[in-house]
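Lab notebook, entry 313. We have the chain sequence and a SMILES string for adenosine-5'-triphosphate, and the next step in the workflow is to get a structural model of the bound complex before anyone spends time on docking refinements. Request logged below.

Task: model protein plus adenosine-5'-triphosphate, output structure tokens.
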Amino acid sequence: MKPELGEIDQAHGGAAVCGIVVDDVTVTYRNGTTALRDVSFAIPTGTITALVGINGSGKSTLFKAIMGFLRAGKGSISILGRSVRQALKETLVAYVPQAEEVDWNFPVLVEDVVMMGRYGHMNMLRIPRRRDHEAVAAALDRVNMTEFAKRQIGELSGGQKKRVFLARALAQDAQVILLDEPFTGVDVKTEEAIIKLLKGLRDEGRVMLVSTHNLGSVPQFCDRTVLLKHTVLASGPTSEVFTEENLQRTFGGVLRHFVLPGERGPGGQPGESVTVISDDERPFVVYGEDGSEAPPKPKKKPAPKRRTRSGSK
Ligand SMILES: Nc1ncnc2c1ncn2[C@@H]1O[C@H](COP(=O)(O)OP(=O)(O)OP(=O)(O)O)[C@@H](O)[C@H]1O
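Result returned:
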């Protein structure tokens, strides 16, 4: 399957603005596990894309391939029109890790973690200059963590740690940001703050690929969605891809799926029913009679087929 470049061209008035293009990529680990097979999708700049799939579907493997930690046995990846290697050299890509991937006992201050984002901008001796300190201060300010600059990173809450790693990506001035489960273990307020920040970064023309099990938040802030199950089941605008049918194909029996019948109206006519689809975190909620089609919600973009709203945690 070829990436939908035509679609991207249309979305950008004819300009081929490609953030990430993954073309027919297969990745096999040394033990013979093929984690990704013939994976193809394309993401324009200035967008937030959700990467959705069950545990073990290959999301982390895809991130590692985009970051150049894993070589694709077949296919190619291009980042802002460059090879992965060139993009890394230009420090264009940043990664915001899952909490479990980090050794929180390592004694390092918050400001030092953020300064790591500047390494690619420094010379071999890595002596920060004024502009590096300024970039760190600005990044901490943007994620609202200035007052924690001198704290040990291990002494922060889960949501605060996430914001520090986002600040590291900002200090790096990364144009492509990969976020691995940014909402796991964070409260609703922090989640909203992170979403607001990501939207701001999108408006600056950056590219964000966000792996998440937080299905309810996907239609809320992700323009595009890639559904992954070792290969791409569907990709494109969230309004087209994020359908109940596609989610069932992606998650199979793993999804929790409830249909709540609507209350009867005054004349006994059927009321609006609610379909709740949940992986393990915030559910995706579909409103409509018998869980079916609901009136389209008027929006600037083409009207989505379903009216959706994220549920609470
Ligand atoms: N280092 C490795 N060596 C061999 N197989 C691996 C390795 N890392 C991952 N795999 C396998 O590759 C497949 C994809 O794993 P991956 O970690 O990419 O999934 P994931 O979608 O990120 O999962 P999760 O949602 O649990 O983080 C799984 O079958 C996994 O067991």
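Notes for the group: The radius of gyration is 21 Å. Worth checking against the assay data. The pocket of adenosine-5'-triphosphate is lined by residues 29, 31, 33, 35, 53, 55-61 (CB under 6 Å).
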